[in-house]
Amino acid sequence: MNQLPNSIEARDIAFQLHSYTDARKHEDNGPLVIEKGDGIYVEDNNGKRYIEGMAGLWSVAVGFGEKRLVEAATRQMEKLPYYHTFSHRTHGPSVELAEKLISMAPVPMSKAYFTNSGSEANDTAIKLIWYRSNALGQPERKKIISRVRGYHGVTIASASLTGLPNNHRSFDLPIANILHTSSPHYHSMKKDGEIETDFAKRCAQDLEDMIRAEGPETIAAFFAEPVMGAGGVVIPPQGYWEAVQPILKKYDILFVADEVICGFGRTGNMFGTQTYNLEPDMMTLSKGISSSYLPMSALLVNEKVYGPMADESHKIGVWGHGYTASGHPVAAAVALENLKIIEERDLVGHVRDISPAFLRRLHSLGGHPLARESRGVGLIGAVEFAHEALSATPGALGGKINMAFQEQGLISRNMGDAMAFCPPLIITEKQVNEMFDIAESGIETIAKAL
């Protein structure tokens, strides 16, 4: 029998498949092993400390090492470590969390359904939309529109909604009935001389043209993030949502707001829906709901969605959908405590207070000779870079900058050649400056090398 590798890095290479990773390159490079975290910082297995500039995966709102969440999980684990919500059964934490989310919703919502990730929440939303169309006697109304550069997950259906090529290549995606309209990224998509409001109107017109070409009676829903996250932190151009929402109402198309990244304070309001005055029929929530301490996500639906679905389940005798861990009591208890912390510490107000310093440093970084554009809102932003020597390989410059950040003590994420910044909501102004000081140094390192 062959001897097993001793180091955690070697064992990882031997046994684990990683998300969003070049598997062969990983065999050569190995992993960064994170062992512990505290506040906005994490530490690797060699004792090196990093600012976690992405809050994990856009998600650790209250920071790492929050003891109240550990204690909430422990209390619930001791009381009821698991139960389900199938077949008329329930438990206290799922009831309390559903009630809490409905009360927090920025527009009237009727019911909450719990899932385990943003992908599952969006996947469930698609199933529910199709179910509703059949319930209404509109079997032809099955097409769903999302946007180029939008990100909605990685299950077969949610990855189809996602408008990024690498989520489709070699996966045989997207599936049928999923369409993609224009990306609202003004900087890269504008025409010569086109001002921002005119670009927004053109995006809205592209959407309406698609609806009319496909047949309004075939379009069931439109999915969109208030601010695009993994597609590069794309901030909607001025007038965009004011132009898009009337079109959805005109053709009676459901609007699903994907709040997986924007929700729970990230944009300076509890929800991105509030930041941009949106009126969705459904909302998908995850990440910040539990600060990702445990897997938890939710789908909120209004009465327009719930009513026909409930009638159809009664006609059939069952709503044939469910996940083993939907509304898991420990995850729900942690989510409830996490939301209490966000409210008690007024982290949404803190984001509004700290945002000017964050955006000032972000846009200052955007003034570097390697930078093409900076964009941000609240406590989320990105700077996009370019250099002629690397222009033939999209993402090559971003990858170099990302590694320079990591070597100097900052964990970020490059989406192509755009570097994202999305720190825990608890970050202080001093720490914001520390983060961007490292970023500036990392960029200078790459600039000199080029």
UniProtKB/TrEMBL annotation:
This is Aspartate aminotransferase family protein. Signal peptide: none annotated. The keyword Transcription regulation does not apply. InterPro entries: Aminotrans_3 (IPR005814), Aminotrans_3_PPA_site (IPR049704), PyrdxlP-dep_Trfase (IPR015424), PyrdxlP-dep_Trfase_major (IPR015421), PyrdxlP-dep_Trfase_small (IPR015422). The keyword Ribonucleoprotein does not apply. Keywords: Aminotransferase, Pyridoxal phosphate, Transferase. SUPFAM superfamilies: PLP-dependent transferases. Its cofactor is pyridoxal 5'-phosphate.
